[in-house]
Amino acid sequence: MRDKKLSLLVAIQSIINGLWLLIHNGKVNYTREIRGFEHMELLNSAFFSLLVIVTGILLIYSIVKKSNKIQRWALVAMNAIWSAYTVILLINEFNGVPNMSWALFLGYNAAIYLAARYEVID
Q: Which residues cross the membrane (predicted)?
């Protein structure tokens, strides 16, 4: 597990992001109240929150079990999920909804890519 530090970091971050989305789901319904977020209903659902939590847990499992195949697929899934999230936040920015989250998730996606590139060895 020592050489999989970046994968472990992105897995924990995915779990934290999913927990935050799950805990705050429905408290402030910004998908309807703030112009530009109407198309984010799925991303603010319990389904999406659980999906990213399970993906993070799957990645941790693959690291503990030393399964490069599962790790590779977990990182690919995680990158696809968070890339879509980043694109939607970026679209909101271009539509006049100021939001710095897209830049943070862009860095997160870079970390996921680097973990897949340098830590998954066949």
A: 7-23, 43-61, 73-91, 97-116
For 31, the token pair is: 């998908």
CA distance 83 to 103: 11
- CA atoms 73, 76, 79, 80: torsion sign: negative
Q: Which domain holds residue 113?
A: 2-119
Number of independent structural domains in the chain: 1
DSSP classification of residue 109: H
d(CA 90, CA 109): 14
Q: Quote the pTM value.
A: 0.83
Residue-wise pLDDT for 53-78, tens only, equals 999 999 999 999 999 999 999 999 99
